[in-house]
Amino acid sequence: MSQRPCPICLSTSFEPIFDAVIDDFEGTVFDKRVLVGCCQQCGFAYNIPDFTSSCLETHYQTEALYQTETGFGVGGTTPADVTRYERYYRLLEPFLANRDVAVVDIGCSKGGFLASLRDKGLSNLRGIELDPICAEYARTTHGLEILSGSANSVPLSDGEADVLVYSHVLEHLDDPDQVLRETKRVLKEDGIVFIEVPDALHYADAKMFDYFHWFGMREHINHFDAAHLSRLLENVGFETLLSNEAIVSPYESELTPNSRHAFPMLAGIFRKSKGKPSEMTFNQGVLRNALDRYIASETGIIESNKDKLTHLIESGKPIYVWGIALEFFCLYSFGELKRCNIQALVDKSAFKQGKTVNGLQIVSPETLCSVSPDAAVIITSSFHADAMLRYLKEIAFAGDVVVFR
Ligand SMILES: [Zn+2]
Q: Which of 6, 131, 269, 347 has CB atoms 3.0–4.6 Å from 324's, for a disulfide?
């Protein structure tokens, strides 16, 4: 395993805090092992294995499900996304000099945020996107100008942009420092950058689901808190204008701190500065303690759910597991699901059907119409559980059904 240095301070000494194998679709570019460490110099938390940039680019271009997902957080225009864009705009608006500022969304996906800015009266808008399907969607659906390119090498001249947007990009980057130098090059003097990432300080307080969701997303290789995000930007020559932590519940109208389906978000606005960065000082234990709390919480939940499948494991019943996404991979890797007599995995996405996980084939939900009457279904998608239960009722499925939510 080649090793990444700490992306904040470049130290190579780290303490491992999480080291596990998380299953995935067979043939993925990623190693199944996830190793998260805390830097012994500055306390930042990051995934240690060094994926090459080309490996990550292959993943985003051919394996990532962003273009097929209809859910929250993939650049679309779901109600949850619209709420997210409103929050971005509230934070960003005080720093916009006028309606003509040149805004570039780096990794704009399907272009939802740019389209929402146009609705606010902004006109000088462009997106940069690596995924050709998402880029084409943004062009045809929203009529946006989208350039093909990556954050590492932005296809713009020096000093072209007033505002750069990186929404859920920096947690993916192998070398964020290099990307931010590119940011600086493309921005005008006094240009600003808007960044949002998951807030690792609050992984334990808000999670989409249990069983190490925040470490299960293996393309999330940087785990930021506000102090380290500011430090990263200041190292490259930015000053912090705003830092905002929020717990966001995309599936509910109210933002409630202990909501079941919630994200901890960290947003920041930074201005290109000529000043020298200040001395690097950190309370090293803060992020580490927060992640230790997260790890203890997930470990406790796995332990307390241990008996949930005992009757199915002992009976040896044929099992079909429905909903093959990260939630499944976490349950499968850390829970008792692996001990079940699984016949097949079920997912309605044609993109996933035909793929395998540990030799288990992914089949369509219609398969469940003709399974043996003593079979059982385990539902592993908390978002789609209700629709799945309705379908099982429609087809008069008579076996046991267990829902994880
Ligand atoms: Zn460090």
A: 347
